[in-house]
Automatic annotation (TrEMBL):
Superkingdom of origin organism: Bacteria
Higher taxonomy: Bacteria, Pseudomonadati, Pseudomonadota, Alphaproteobacteria, Rhodobacterales
Pfam families: WsaF_C
Name of this protein: WsaF C-terminal domain-containing protein
Domain spans labelled WsaF C-terminal: 455-592
Native organism: Celeribacter baekdonensis B30
């Protein structure tokens, strides 16, 4: 007998096995609708299954799942075509039955997959996802393989993404691999629970409405709408603000929740402002919750509407899910009712001075002190106005404090009466800010920087009004003057300003030079960009010691920064000898640039200074503060 005869005999045997395993009555009942649509006159259920049904994903009997078999065994799925007559069931009979792990599915998994299959709208799937299904024999195969990751809707009436957004427990169950999709969850509970659904088009429309504006315009409008008065405050605005933040608060303590927790008060919750202080704040709270098991609830306190608040929550959930998912609940402070609900065993923490007055009233309802996360001496954010005095006095209200750096503690101790008024029982602690150490060897560093024909000047440049402490205008003025004086002559230089909230036009520096304005970027991209720099520039004239200039210096950039009486030459040199301290004036900045140009050529010293600088990892930066705060919130 030749090989062809052997193959033919084998196929005949498999055909017989398929027929023997095929349950015609069950099959005709289960797939009656598709048989009615696609069957031929006089065609038996078995013939229909062989001709088309098996390829479509039909099961031959109640105990086998064709679609799950194809999903798990991609080698089988890739070889299926309607013309071949092959199915997962045939493969199972010929090969899979003797191979480990080919069909490990439980009866409940098989039944759920079949229930899902029968509920799918194949026409909708082909119309909506047909262009994506290359490499899959049918759009149903594509759906089952990708629904978990791509949130594919099963029909026009049911939005997979919309259902997951509505029900957090469903998203959790999917993440834990208990179910494959929100649609499967709906099928399982539809007769037991009342669960609402949203149509596919309705969900897309809701997202489109919130993303209709171009990204650049969205950023600017969001800031204007959500940060009223960020560039200028009138007297009436300040009066209204003091009434809003200083008025009475109606606090209702509800039933205790778990091991306790924190009600977190913030002025805004939107993705456009998540940098610097906000990232430090949320990062600290996440670690605290992870280590102690306490819950976190967020309350946004501003004048915006509930509609706008919900829109911001949606944008946070989409753009910043890691931060959004930290919180177990959200509240919006109502300026009319001024009502706050907080579990009996929760403490309260405020993000800034304005909110500290509300925090103090909430904490007093349980004879507690609020926790004040002090990131800066906030009166310096204001001119000599009512709001400066209002914020300054907030620091004298009772509180336990978490300071953003020990250097900031030194300022409050030496330059303000806060510690004196708080007395000897004042409880305070501090975090430090993590710096990333230069992660290339010396030879590589020298090689990267010695062969470039164009040098790169990188400054921290934020021209928006709320970043006035970084003195964008004076830095650009001094840079123009340095160019006019020929400080950068003799070499080809590029000038960059990093950190704007949105894209703006480059700024003329004189002659052919331009200052290229670069919006804030992800941390990894920012660190990669620093590796390409030759000189850094970053200043801050409020009491916080800053972060950017230290990171620039830690990456080997001779970095011009300003000094103060507490941030003096000796202290800055101890932090990093790549720092070039100057007084805050155009003339001294220009002289600082001259020094930086000379130092930029000494690559060995730049590297040695970078490596020698003290750099703290995240654990070291937060350890003491986490322990101190845990002792307060877990009592």
């Amino acid at each position: 007998m030749d090989t062809q005869d052997t193959i033919a005999d084998t196929q005949n045997v498999i055909d017989l096995l398929v027929a023997e395993g095929f349950d015609a009555a069950w099959y005709e009942t289960t797939y009656r609708d598709e048989i009615a649509r696609h069957g031929l006159e006089g065609e038996s259920p078995l013939d229909f299954y062989r001709r088309l049904g098996g390829f479509l994903g039909h099961d031959p009997h109640d105990g086998f799942s064709e679609i799950l078999y194809r999903k798990k065994n991609t080698d089988v799925r890739k070889n299926l075509t309607q013309a071949s007559g092959e199915t997962g069931f045939r493969h199972w009979l010929e090969f899979g039955v003797n191979e480990t792990g080919r069909h490990p599915f439980t009866k409940s998994q098989i039944n759920l997959a079949r229930q899902t299959y029968l509920a799918l709208d194949r026409r909708f799937l082909e119309k909506t996802y047909g262009a994506r299904m290359a490499g899959y024999p049918t759009v149903v195969d594509y759906y089952f393989s990708q629904v978990t990751q791509e949130e594919l809707s099963p029909s026009a009436e049911f939005s997979e993404s919309g259902y997951r957004d509505l029900y957090e427990d469903v998203t959790i169950a999917i993440g834990e691999n208990l179910i494959a999709s929100g649609f499967q969850h709906f099928l399982l509970v539809q007769t037991k629970e009342v669960r609402h659904v949203i149509s596919h088009d309705q969900y897309l429309k809701s997202l489109a409405e919130k993303k209709s504006a171009e990204q650049e315009a969205e950023t600017r409008l969001a800031l204007e709408d959500n940060l009223p008065g960020v560039t200028a405050l009138a007297a009436l605005d300040m009066l209204n603000a003091m009434e809003f933040y200083g008025g009475k608060v109606k606090v209702r303590r509800t039933e205790a929740q778990g091991p306790g927790g924190l009600l977190v008060l913030v002025p805004d919750f939107l993705p456009e402002i998540l940098f610097g202080g906000y990232l430090a704040f949320y990062g600290f709270l996440r670690k605290l919750s992870e280590q102690t098991g306490i819950g976190l609830r967020l309350m946004v306190i501003n004048h915006s509407s509930m509609e706008k608040h919900e829109g911001n929550l949606l944008r946070m959930r989409i753009k910043m899910p890691k931060i959004y998912n930290m919180f177990h609940g959200f509240q919006k402070f109502d300026a009319q009712t001024r009502a706050v609900e907080i579990p009996a065993n929760y403490h309260v923490i405020s993000y800034c001075a304005e909110l500290h007055r509300i925090a103090q009233k909430i904490a007093a309802s349980a004879n507690q002190k609020p926790i004040f996360f002090i990131q800066e001496y906030e009166p310096d954010f204001h001119a000599n106005t009512d709001m400066r005095s209002f914020n300054e006095s907030a620091f004298f209200l009772p509180h336990d404090a978490v300071y953003n750096s020990h250097k900031l503690i030194e300022f409050f101790q030496k330059k303000t009466p806060v510690f004196e008024r708080a007395g000897k029982d004042y409880r305070y602690t501090a975090i430090e800010n993590q710096l990333v150490r230069l992660n290339v060897g010396k030879d590589r560093f020298v090689e990267m920087n010695s062969g470039r024909e164009t040098r790169r000047f990188i400054m921290y440049g934020r021209p928006e009004g709320h970043a006035a402490r970084n003195h964008f205008g004076m830095l650009v003025y001094a840079l123009r003057e340095a160019i006019r004086q020929g400080v950068f002559a003799g070499e080809d230089w590029e000038f960059y300003a990093l950190g704007t909230l949105g894209k703006i036009d480059d700024i003329d520096l004189g002659g052919s030079e331009k200052l290229r304005m670069v919006p804030k970027m992800p941390k990894e991209d920012y660190e990669e960009f620093l590796l390409t720099g030759d000189i850094g520039l970053s200043v801050i004239t409020t009491p916080h010691p800053g972060i950017v200039h230290f990171q620039m210096a830690a990456y080997g950039l001779p970095t011009v920064t300003n000094k103060t009486d507490l941030r003096n030459d000796a202290w800055l040199a101890k932090q990093n000898r790549n720092l070039i301290p100057v007084e805050m004036s155009p003339e001294t900045l220009v002289e600082g640039f001259r020094v930086a140009v000379k130092r930029a050529k000494d690559l060995n010293t730049r590297y040695d200074n970078a490596i020698a600088s003290p750099v703290m990892d995240e654990e070291s930066c937060l350890r003491d503060a986490l322990a101190d705060l845990a002792a307060i919130v877990t009592k």
